[in-house]
Amino acid sequence: MTTTSDRTAQHDSATSPGSADERIDVGGLSELLLGRWPEHRRAARARAGDPRFHKDETLTPAEHRERTLEQMREMVAEEDKLSWLAFPERMGGLDQPGANLACFSELVAADPSLQIKAGVQWGLFGAAILHLGTPEQQDRLLPAAMDLTVPGAFAMTETGHGSDVASIGTTATYDPATEEFVLDTPFRGAWKDYLGNAAQHATAATVFAQLITNGVDHGVHCFYVPIRETLADGSAGPFLPGVGGEDDGLKGGLRGIDNGRLHFSGVRVPRADLLARYGSVAPDGTYSSPIDSPGRRFFTMLGSLVQGRVSLDGSAVNAAKIGLAIAVKYGAERRQFAGPGVDEMVILDYATHRRRLFPRIAEAYAGHFANERLLDLFDDVFSGEHDTPENREDLETTAAALKSTSTAFALDTLQECREACGGAGFLTENRITSLRADLDVYATFEGDNTVLAQLVAKRLVGDYGRELKGATKSPAGMARFVVERAADAALHRTGLRRVTQALADVGDPRRAAGHLRDAETQRELLADRVATMVEEVAMALRPAQKAAPAEAARILDENQVALVEAARAHADLLRWEAFTDALSSIEDPATRRVMTWVRDVFGLTVIERNLTWYLLHGRLSDQRARTVTGYVDRLLLRLRPHAVDLVDAWGFGQEHLRAKIASGAEAERQDEARAYYATRRASGAAPVSEKALKKKR
Amino acid sequence: MTTTSDRTAQHDSATSPGSADERIDVGGLSELLLGRWPEHRRAARARAGDPRFHKDETLTPAEHRERTLEQMREMVAEEDKLSWLAFPERMGGLDQPGANLACFSELVAADPSLQIKAGVQWGLFGAAILHLGTPEQQDRLLPAAMDLTVPGAFAMTETGHGSDVASIGTTATYDPATEEFVLDTPFRGAWKDYLGNAAQHATAATVFAQLITNGVDHGVHCFYVPIRETLADGSAGPFLPGVGGEDDGLKGGLRGIDNGRLHFSGVRVPRADLLARYGSVAPDGTYSSPIDSPGRRFFTMLGSLVQGRVSLDGSAVNAAKIGLAIAVKYGAERRQFAGPGVDEMVILDYATHRRRLFPRIAEAYAGHFANERLLDLFDDVFSGEHDTPENREDLETTAAALKSTSTAFALDTLQECREACGGAGFLTENRITSLRADLDVYATFEGDNTVLAQLVAKRLVGDYGRELKGATKSPAGMARFVVERAADAALHRTGLRRVTQALADVGDPRRAAGHLRDAETQRELLADRVATMVEEVAMALRPAQKAAPAEAARILDENQVALVEAARAHADLLRWEAFTDALSSIEDPATRRVMTWVRDVFGLTVIERNLTWYLLHGRLSDQRARTVTGYVDRLLLRLRPHAVDLVDAWGFGQEHLRAKIASGAEAERQDEARAYYATRRASGAAPVSEKALKKKR
């Protein structure tokens, strides 16, 4: 996919590779990046490249909504049944939860509206039935959700409660007289809100409400609730009695989705339609659940829906890749300002341009490998192969850490790419603004990024506290704990290494600049930072356990920013570890060498970003810290000849990028302009410049 | 404008002010912020609050374009003639260049499309005639540009050349036989591109082209060129012969503007329509100019159009303020997760939320005061009162420094505000996504931010070099230079203080944490950083002067990122200085105290962001550096009770914010929900929670 012009541009540059055999094996790397389910990925990528599924920027929001639903019907009609990968074989699915998410994350290249509306239908509405329902309920309700006979909404979030789902206001009160639940929205803040499919297309919803029976509130449960009539042609008719709602109207992006609000007044739901896997009510109103603790029950239910976060992580990384591929391909052709010779310089040859784009290429690779690992973990749990409580918890923590990191990364990257393409980047025909607008809310739905980071950090602090508690029961235990923390070099399940590096390397000659390229040095620096931050926060939070509520709140408040920072450091480590592990599966030496530089860029820019921390914690000497930026800059220069190859390896074709500036048009224009000037010079008809004349005088 | 609910929210918080007299005098501060032309500002803000000029989110792009033109016609018809403030009195203008830009920057609150289309018409097309034309040309061409008889495009940028205007490809070749210039677009890359008004409405354009006469290319000049027929109803008809073009199509924002491309084939322009203030051609083709140096002539022409940058700076600050006002008002009402008591916590009481929003409030204030100072400088030059070459150069440098900083700040802030408002932030009804999409390209037009930063840095390095050169001519000069650099505490015109602080404060007990709040400490830290960075880059670049082209390019490349960093540091200092100066004009003691904290937050977060630099350059001891973050956090907590007041003082009413979540609706919903639960508890009918039951057991 690298055009002749790219090659020319690269050889123009002072930094072109010495010989062809130093180049990346783009095909081989691309193959590796297909991951664990290469055939599925390939099929899903081909689907995302099919014009039938592409975002049409010219549609009105109303037309876009209809088209998106139509596209989903076409997806159902496809022979490959890619949309049903996660559903049970007994109902036509393929029982492949990991492959399903891998495919889903490719769909972002077609149209994020299509991706998210499909996600609402199959990944939320359908998944709620699958994961919260009994086998009987699955058999009864899933087929219509799968084949779109029943388009559905996932009615969890309320206007008044998003992040804090446990506090939603909707009630489902059991009435033993009729064996029904009565669904009510007691106040405006309890309206369900922001729900995809709810404004127009959904004829049913999985509604989360406080289950009340016999005067006891058993907390949040999910109910299957028809909300609209289905008309003769299969489309959604008016609301059913007791159901109301409104359209959320225009949004900053994802305008192909009909988000809306719903409310309920005395809507009667048959007892059988409480999705009853984790809690059921007997005819007389007696509640029972396989999970005794209401808290654990709630988190188990929510945890069964973790796939949303996993799939957004992969999607965000893909979106960032698309932006980077566009900006790098354009940057490799675009010229501006005269360089040392006669020609204008390719903008990718500017140090500022490399700084804007290359560390983000590295981070996209890190995010890619981390998502592959997350998919593995997800498949382990949801295929049932290794479905343990510990794995579920690890999965949830890792998903929260990566989703909150990658969605923020994607937005930042798309913006940088937009600006790096100048005015051309602002045109819809060059894709980036459209993609960014659609991705915006990925930072919020399926868990607000800040709230997710806190969740991750609390888990890390909790782990630390449990280990400490266990250890300190005896002097021997305490000693073991200390030794383990010092020596354990093995990767913790969630990637948190137990490494202390209490001794700073101040003055240590072995810690010279060159050591920064050493993987072990990077690992230690990244891992130590997580461990130390967690330890510091844990220690700072300890007094809160025995403090009065107000004082406890103050202590938590004082450490909240540090909690979020620790979670981010953890995500950095996870990604670095995943990248480093992946290096060992690259066989081509040149590719592995270049990819090692890319990994180094990721690791060292993370360290560079947090250099203050390393300095203040005595982990890096001033002398060594001073070398970091210079070393990164040298690495970026070294990567320059490989930039186009690195983005080509992601495997997106023109049918995925769909940006005129990344199509080779810019190189054609440059060639035409240069040919014009050359011809004019050769003809002798070129005007002399006044500047040149004055210099002569 | 602070509602009762805000007050309640604030008093709920642990951080409420002790007594009423500690509160900010919102009215007084608001008055102060109106600046040098309060009446004009007030009128312009009222106009921006007028629904006739508001962005209508429901329009199609085609309808939006028509409406924007219509709004401009209404603006012309207004009695206040706010749009003509900058034009000469002799043609109905008011000759008030500074007030004009102050008013222009308020228009962003109405609709950025309207603002920028008005900017194209009066601030670019009209301004080109005004500043590049002779009095005769002004008299002949300006009136129709002013009253919209001739909607115009500003045809400078080409597809192939944006930042490097000197290299545009369009040619204007003089033909003495007919006393005309022949305008040509020699290749596709030389098409004019991204021009507002060009796709549909413009009937003329100010076209920049290489002026060629008698075989000599005199560089870029501007020509007045009719491009479309004017139809009987006054609207634009088809292209005139030789002119062609196309629509830029959809954009990421500003969809109310018809951006497009233009090209020319043998279009004949009368000799009289070369805008001839800085260069003219006699009938026989002899070129003459009041400025002998082609380079200086070019930069003088471009510099006369600096107002675009000045006005975008103020507009970007205003857009950021709107986003912050929405997010802060919502955050002061929105509750999520139970706090220490029974009630859920107001989200503005979370440390993470304060960290997201408050430093940006401080930066918006800093940006506001810096823009006021920039407007002063602009008015000084363009009113003719102090129009010296030095002032022009300072104006251009300061405008470039601030525009590149504030537009980036606005985008970052609007995104943070969007996310801080959660899913609600993504709805168009809450404004932020729409505003952000429109502001996106402010980072690119009127000068790409990265290119502008380099321009600023080169100027600073040049100044340094000149001083050094002058100084080193004699030993006495050198000594004076050194002393001046060490002792000069007066503000340099462009805000760059000549302060060296070669001695680090390591171990100095006077430099304890408390000193960070001292203005002189902040000033020294900020100014020293700029001076040192400039000096370092200047020294690093010196070998380039005598190096071969390729080596010189390599040296420049190696220092390019540092150049950009130095420019940003300079902008930080400019803003801090402007903020600090403004404090002295605040009379109310409580207001001044709170605003001093706000200034401290700005200064200290800038220092915090660059802490690595301060540590590695020995400007802060580890001990002192460690106190920065904690001190900032305490300041943010201290500002909590004043947050709503601080955004209210910006003087935007509901008619400017136009966000449902900032209208008090959230507080109403919260009150309703709490009333519901209170009533239910009082009635004795509230269900008992399973959790509570299990705890009892």
UniProtKB/TrEMBL annotation, chains A, B:
Q: Which UniProt keywords apply?
A: FAD, Flavoprotein, Oxidoreductase
Pfam families assigned = ACOX, ACOX_C_alpha1, Acyl-CoA_dh_M, Acyl-CoA_dh_N
Q: What class of enzyme is it?
A: oxidoreductase
Q: Where is the composition biased (Polar residues)?
A: 1-18
Residue intervals of the Acyl-CoA oxidase/dehydrogenase middle domain: 153-267
Example GO molecular function: acyl-CoA oxidase activity
- UniProt region (Disordered), positions on chain: 1-25
Per UniProt, residues of the Acyl-CoA dehydrogenase/oxidase N-terminal domain are 63-145
| Record's signal peptide | none
Q: Which parts of the sequence belong to the Acyl-CoA oxidase C-terminal domain?
A: 520-662
Q: Which InterPro entries match?
A: ACOX_C_alpha1 (IPR055060), Acyl-CoA_Oxase/DH_mid-dom (IPR006091), Acyl-CoA_Oxase/DH_mid-dom_sf (IPR046373), Acyl-CoA_oxidase (IPR012258), Acyl-CoA_oxidase_C (IPR002655), AcylCo_DH-like_C (IPR036250), AcylCoA_DH/ox_N (IPR013786), AcylCoA_DH/ox_N_sf (IPR037069)
Q: Which cofactor does it need?
A: FAD
EC number of the protein: 1.3.3.6
SUPFAM superfamilies hit by this protein: Acyl-CoA dehydrogenase C-terminal domain-like, Acyl-CoA dehydrogenase NM domain-like
Domain named Acyl-CoA oxidase C-alpha1: residues: 303-461
**Family the UniProt entry places it in:** Belongs to the acyl-CoA oxidase family.
State the name under which the record lists this protein: Acyl-CoA oxidase
**What species does this protein belong to?**
Isoptericola halotolerans
